[in-house]
Amino acid sequence: MSIIALHSSQSHGGQWRALARQLPSEVSFQSPDLIGYGRAMPYASLGISTPHFRLQDELNALQAAEVFPAREPVTLLGHSYGGALALKWALEHPSQVAQIVVYEPVAFHVLDPKSTARREIEAVATAMESFSAAEACAHFVDYWNRPGYFAALPEVAQQLMISQQDKVSADFHALLDEPHALADYAALACPVTLVVGRQSPLSSRTVAAELSRVISHAKTVEVMAGHMGPLTDARTVNPVLLDALIAKSR
């Protein structure tokens, strides 16, 4: 069994380290850094203006790095931005994907433009574009956690996040402007598990609800955590993810 784990914005592949240690030894596990994070290529090196960055550009980079499976279909694990990317991957390359396990995939493009959830997340994106990098970063981090969360982080962590804020803005454009529509996700034939935090913002909870509505065979599991649960509440979230990941191999 092979698993490819895709991280959230403002993170890196190392966010899955604790979960990986709990997997059976025979499981192959990859957690690549996505563009602009960790040791991946710098976002600026792409030469793509922020409003025009798309999830397909992220998939192209993974393909160039030979992350795509060479032989057997893989299980895709994703959190937030990485979850939306996992769903995109499965739509574009269904033969490569055996199973999808995602924690609150922020596929904002599936939200009704008139919905409260869509207006909420668009307001976050619009606010970030009017702020300095530091202010935008704080706004982003606090939205997904709680007010004051960013200010309480060590300065080293703050500076790293601020340096990555351009990619975060690009991620938002990719998530909001992805050409796939909600109905397209009904075509996913592989097993899908959607894990949702009960303490998460309306935007991400609504995305999960909409996906669950159109993917008739999707299994939805709620946990007592927020959107950043895989990082802030790993002891609660990881057992749920592990159960979904290895259930197919039992």
Structural account:
By secondary structure, the chain is of the alpha/beta class. The chain has one domain (2-247): Rossmann fold. The chain contains ten helices and six strands; from the N terminus they run βαβαβαβααααβαβαα. The chain has helices spanning 17-21, 55-64, 81-92, 116-130, 133-144, 155-163, 165-177, 202-214, 229-232, 234-247, and strands spanning 2-6, 28-30, 74-79, 97-103, 192-197, 219-223. It has a six-stranded parallel sheet with strand order 2-1-3-4-5-6, sandwiched between helices. α4 (116-130) packs across α8. It is globular, with a radius of gyration of 17 Å.
Q: Uncertain regions: pLDDT < 50 for 5+ in a row?
A: none
Shape: globular
Looking across the biggest beta sheet, what order are the strands in?
Answer: 2-1-3-4-5-6
Q: Kindly give the count of domains.
A: 1
Residue share in β-strands: 5-15%
What's the mean pLDDT score? 95
Give the tally of β-strands: 6
Fold-level CATH name: Rossmann fold
Task: Just name the CATH architecture.
Answer: 3-Layer(aba) Sandwich
CATH superfamily assignment? Alpha/Beta hydrolase fold, catalytic domain
Radius of gyration: 17 Å
Oligomer kind = single chain
SSE sequence, one letter per element: EHEHEHEHHHHEHEHH
Helical residues, percent: 40-55%
Q: Helical segment tally? A: 10
Largest sheet report: 6 strands, parallel
Distance between the termini: 11 Å
CATH class reads Alpha Beta
Class based on secondary structure composition and strand pairing:
alpha/beta
